[in-house]
Every structure is written in C-alpha cells, then in structure tokens.
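User: Before I run my own analysis I want an independent prediction to cross-check against. Here's the chain; please return only the structure tokens and, at the end, one sentence I can use as a sanity check.
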Amino acid sequence: MGDSPARIEVPDVVGMTGREAHALCHGLGLFLGYYNMDQQLPESMVIAYQEPPPGTMAEPAAAVRIWTTLDPLPDDRRPQ
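Assistant: Structure tokens:
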C-alpha cells in the first residue's frame, strides 16, 4: 500500500479572471469548474465567489467551483 497523495491548499481565486484562475488551479493539480456562464469566459468577467473557500485542503484533481460577475468587485476583494 502506497502513501496517499498529498492534499492541496485551495487558492483564493476571487477577483481573478477565469483564465488566471484556470492556470493557477491547473498548476496546483486542481480542476476549475464554471457555473452561471458559458464555457468560454469573456475577458470582462471576474470571479465573484468560489467553493470550497480558500485555504481548504483538497484532494488532488478536486474541483474548485466558481461563479462570475460583470460587476466590479468591492475594493477589499480586488486583486492587489
């Protein structure tokens, strides 16, 4: 019996574009799932909410589900 794979800390993708979040999650070994939008993410959309929340420990290839908005995010949720 081998060791179980290491768990991955879910990143904070709120405020990112879908492209940025996909690249980050893919690089960590997570799957990014889109909700409330077409498969093709328009450049003007940003992520407004994610599940599971940032900091959650997930299994490799776990899904990070995102919801997007065209509205500006509050100042405290904008990327630095």
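Sanity check: The longest helix spans residues 18-28.
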